[in-house]
Amino acid sequence: MKRSFAIALASSLPFLGACVLHKAAWRAQRDDSTQVSVVADTQPVVRQEGAPKHEAEAKHSAAPKPMAQMSISASDGRSIGMFLMSNDVDLSFSSIAYANAASDDVRAFARRILTDHTQLVASMRALVDEHGMSPAEDDAARDLRDLSTLQRDSLRALSGRAFDSTYVAMELDRHRAILSMIDDVLLPRARSSELREMLATTRPVIAAHVAHAEQLQAAMRKR
User: Residues 36, 42, 48, 50: is their CA dihedral positive or negative?
Assistant: First the structure.
């Protein structure tokens, strides 16, 4: 009975995790829309496939004034904080999966997540140190951290096939939500060209993880 409850709880948590990331995107859009800026946004909006839009207009826009740079730094700080929190959550789950997965394929996937996300975190922290950026933790990041604790507890209660399928489903939903957050929020609102480049470079890595998780999930359903 206890194990059945754990499976039922775990199966509902990937959806909740995706909701938290989408909630983060909504909050970020709301915060930016209410922010008073003394100059127009001078950066191009980036489409989902990564192609810049209105690049010509961006090149001819006025340079930001010192007062605007303070709000820009705060916006990028929230983006960096959410990016780092999302990656830290993935690392914590992949550590559990690498140690407990029943399938060699799932364990290999967890190892890939550990390797790639460790590099992503290192690259972002190097960018932060090099350019003096300051990551900021907001309510959305704290919500994600709290939910991840509940998800980890539910995952640890499982074993065998139930563990593997739940872990892969969690990673699939989480990575899809991260892609959406990058495309819809982080890239369009990024003010620093270096941060924008870093996020654009990250996107193919996350997309590859989505494809890998989809293949794993399809293979497990056939067994």
Answer: negative
pLDDT in tens, 1-59: 444 444 444 444 444 455 555 555 445 444 544 332 322 333 333 333 333 333 333 33
Which helix (H) or strand (E) segment holds residue 46: the answer is strand 45-46
CB 25 within 8 A of CB 183: no
Report the alpha-carbon distance of residue 41 to residue 89 in Å, rounded.
Answer: 31
* 3-class DSSP state of 159: coil
Q: Give the domains, in start order, of the chain with CATH numbers.
A: 75-223 (1.20.1260.10)
Q: What share of the chain in percent tops pLDDT 90?
A: 48
Alpha carbon distance 32, 185 (integer Å)? 10
Q: Write out the DSSP string of 49-115.
A: TS-EESHHHHHTSPPPPHHHHHHHHHHHHHHHHHHHHHHHHHHHHHHHHHHH-SSHHHHHHHHHHHH
Q: Looking at the whole model, is its pTM more than 0.85?
A: no
Q: Is residue 187 within 8 Å of residue 46, measured between CB atoms? A: yes
HSE, side-chain direction, 13 A CA sphere, residue 149: 5
Count of all residues that appear for the chain in the document? 223
Nearest to 31 by CA among 132, 109, 136: 136
Amino acid at 22: H
Residue 46 pairs in a beta bridge with 52
